[in-house]
Each structure stands twice: as structure tokens, then as C-alpha cells.
Amino acid sequence: MNGFPEVKEFDEKVVQVNRVSKKTAGGNRVGFSVLVVVGDKKGRVGVGMGHATDVSSAVKKAITYAKSHLITVPVRGTTIPHEIHKKFGAAKIILSPAPAGSGVIAGGAVRAVVSAAGIRDISSKVLGTNNKITNVYATIEALKELRANDKQLK
Question: Could you say which of 3.30.420.40, 3.30.230.10, 3.20.20.70, 1.20.120.1630 is the CATH number of the domain covering 73-149?
Fold first, then answer.
């Protein structure tokens, strides 16, 4: 240690912690399943699930997975280049660009992903399910489909 505080490259946000148990011959085996979003607030974001017998180990596993599966999100100013509709499982998600200064208008699961990606102005709507895991993965899939130049889309 050189006396300086450690600078983190990525912001990490724990979205959900689930206590899960498995029936075995000797009784129940209790574990934890954790959903984590990591991002550098400069256009890179990743999501990971970790499972372990204690929460801290599950979080470490999820962060390791998320960091190795990062995607790059095209950002135009402080928002996204164009509107996108995406269906993933039961979740239907709509992400729309918003004018500068309007902020992140999104629910908890979507807010974690777009904030980690560095998007500061966006409007979103999630339809179909309240499952945070599905909503986070739907948001990631929607962000993967964004294109930097949307001239060919119009």
C-alpha cells in the first residue's frame, strides 16, 4: 500500500440478492444468488449473476463475470442515439432518448444498467414483468442493439 486510496475502474451495483435453498438428503442447503451491474460510466456496462453459500462470495463471482462480459453502448451526448423496443422473455422494454437535463426516468433495474453505462438522460418503460433479473437482461439486450449513427434507421 502506498497510502493512496484505491481507484476503482468500475462502479458496482448489487441489484438483487436472493436466498435460495436446495433439498438434500441431509436437509436444506442454503445459498445466495446475487445480480450485479458493473459499468465505467463511459459507455461500458456488464451484468453478472453469482451463486455461493455466502453473499460476499456470490457478489465477487457476479462482479468477475460481469467484468468479463462487458458491452459498449453508443452514447450521443448524454443520451442514447435512437429509440429502441426489445422483448426478452416476458419483459418488453422501451428505451427513448431524452433532452439534456431530464435525467434518468426509469425503474430500479433499468436505472442501474443505464446509470452504470454513463447515460444521464433517458426515458424508459418496462412492460410485462416485475422480475428484476429479466428486466436487467432485457435492458442489456436493448443496449446491444443500439447503433451509433441512426441515419439509416430514419
Answer: 3.30.230.10
